[in-house]
Amino acid sequence: MANLNIDAKAQNTYDAIVIGSGISGGWAAKELTGKGLRTLVLERGRDVRHVTDYPTTMTQPWEFEHRGQLTKEVKDANPIISKCYAFYEGTQQFFVKDAEHPYIQEKPFDWIRGYQVGGKSLMWARQTQRWSDFDFEGPARDGFAVDWPIRYADLAPWYSYVERFAGITGNKDGLATLPDGEFLPPHEWNCVEKHFQQKVAGRYKDRHVIMGRAAHITKPQPIHLQQGRAQCQHRTICERGCPFGGYFSSNSSTIPWAARTGKMTLRPDSVVHSIIYDEQKGRATGVRIIDANTKQMQEFYARIIFLNAAALNSNLVLLNSTSHRFPNGLGNDSGVLGKYVAFHNYRAGISAQYDGNLDSTTDGRRPNGPYIPRFRNVYKQETDFLRGYAAGFSANRVSRSNQDGIGADLKQSLLNPELGGWSVGSHMMGETIPKETNYVALDANQKDPFGIPQLKISIAYDDNDDKMVKDYQEQMTEMFTAAGFTNIRVRDDRRNPGLDIHEMGGVRMGKDPKTSMLNKWNQLHAVKNVFVTDGSSMTSTSTQNPSLTYMAMSARSVDYAVKAMKKGLV
Ligand SMILES: Cc1cc2nc3c(=O)[nH]c(=O)nc-3n(C[C@H](O)[C@H](O)[C@H](O)COP(=O)(O)OP(=O)(O)OC[C@H]3O[C@@H](n4cnc5c(N)ncnc54)[C@H](O)[C@@H]3O)c2cc1C
């Protein structure tokens, strides 16, 4: 019997365990296996294999039962995820339905999740702007949160490393606020976007309109072809999964790459319950899971553990990993676990029309758009709110086709629509300040279908966010007016936190173990063989989309962990 137990334990023992197979977990798996470690990837959702498990990727609009729309039944049953623009008939299979995995909204929070192999990397919008020192130095300079233990220079080589592999399109714009990367050719502009760029450049020294940097292969390099990925076809139905691998997802890129090493064991349907801490050894020894099919609890063991369950779920796993030594959650000596959660303020937008360039229109599609990097409070504090916002921008020619009729007449009118003026618009992407009062915790009473405590989320906007919305509306109105746009309308949709899908923090990095959970290597201060490299580790949020930074941090952290492991330090 004793021997059987030893055998079973040996069978369940790996060099490394990765929890979660989304953007950050995929990178951890790729890097760990690439360095020769036998790695177990535990994923709570089902398997989604590249190409074969994208059921709607070739579906034409008329082939959908509801022409791509959500039915009233689906909307009524899913009031939260129905708010997400990317949730529609063709993508339903990749989103967690509201009733499936309940959580408690102490304050309104729209939690958008993807529980499957690949996580949210299947449905993301692929914007990949680097962060800069204006972001990493923010908390220290402006006196909020705690100082980041790293600076841009620590991440720069890792940004380059992940960009080359993932395939990032962009233009080298030479801006201090938005460092350039290893770019594939940029996407094209249309004439009204160019017009706006020139008008802004002519009026403001510190405001720039650039083409977004995005995880699309505009010109495949050998490393992309080796992954079996090809040039992006500009189909702009990315969220259904791309059979060309034209955009970066774990499913098309990092996970199959890790599998090819022969070192990865991928275990879908494995809901991680907690991380096991051995009091005698003073280290984590493994992970407890609940098999989603059998509901049985099982244990797996490893030398090092990477936690990549996405920001709020990584908080949940650590909070649920209690022991005599850590009664309030693994590594939580400081008491900050679950606190200082922040997100992006996407509430504001602006739209207008432009009556110039009426001799031109656009042709084709583009899975990307122009981007305005942050310009407020960059070099000095100049407003009555802290930090600032970036903005998206786009211009489209309005076309009206007469959809009456059938057959050849209908085709003719669809092919030759009546062209109206140009419609222009922008949306805000604001930094929010991490605060102790914005937190997540385990609910004392309610459990999920696996018997794991439900997450209680208590996150809200504050006065700083309201002021920022107002400033965005005023500044963008000024810029739109300068560009000759008319019929300008601003909005504040007062959306709930969460719908930005950029929640971060709760397991923040910092220099001081008394006020932070992780050190500069994303390693728990108090449990040296546990690393957390997803959004939960972010000390502050910047204004840029965060996933590229998670990728770079994951690769950097694995590099450190494996070196430390070889030296016997973890
Ligand atoms: C519509 C949409 C648009 C977006 N656009 C952008 C964008 O343009 N740019 C950008 O940077 N970001 C964007 N994001 C956000 C981006 O998708 C996330 O930041 C990114 O996926 C986070 O990576 P992750 O590895 O932390 O989490 P995920 O990719 O969500 O992966 C986490 C994985 O962990 C698994 N998991 C969770 N809990 C457990 C557990 N207990 N046990 C085992 N497994 C578990 C999940 O099932 C999931 O597979 C967007 C997201 C969406 C949905």
Descriptive report:
It is a single chain. The protein is α/β, with parallel strands linked by helices and 570 residues long. The protein has 13 helices and 21 strands. It has helices spanning 2-11, 23-34, 72-77, 133-136, 138-142, 152-166, 191-203, 222-226, 254-260, 311-319, 407-415, 463-482, 547-566, and strands at 13-19, 39-42, 104-105, 168-169, 183-184, 210-211, 264-267, 270-278, 283-291, 297-307, 339-342, 344-345, 348-354, 370-372, 389-400, 418-431, 439-447, 453-458, 486-492, 504-506, 530-532. The strands form five sheets. Strands 1, 2, 7, 8, 9, 10 and 21 form a seven-stranded mixed β-sheet that branches. Strands 6, 12, 13, 14, 15, 16 and 19 form a seven-stranded antiparallel β-sheet that branches. A hairpin with a 5-residue loop joins β9 and β10 (297-307). α2 runs parallel beside α9, α2 (23-34) packs parallel to α13 (547-566) and α6 (152-166) packs across α13 (547-566). The longest helix is centred in the C-terminal third of the chain and has 20 residues, at 463-482. The two termini are 31 Å apart. 50% of the residues are buried. The model has no long low-confidence stretch (mean pLDDT 96). Flavin-adenine dinucleotide is lined by residues 19-25, 42-45, 84, 86, 112, 114-116, 119-121, 123-127, 270-272, 308-310, 313, 317, 501, 534-535, 545-547, 550. Its cofactor is FAD. Belongs to the GMC oxidoreductase family. Residues 225-322 form the Glucose-methanol-choline oxidoreductase N-terminal domain. Keywords: FAD, Flavoprotein, Oxidoreductase. InterPro entries: FAD/NAD-bd_sf (IPR036188), GMC_OxRdtase_N (IPR000172), GMC_OxRtase_C (IPR007867), P2Ox-like (IPR051473).
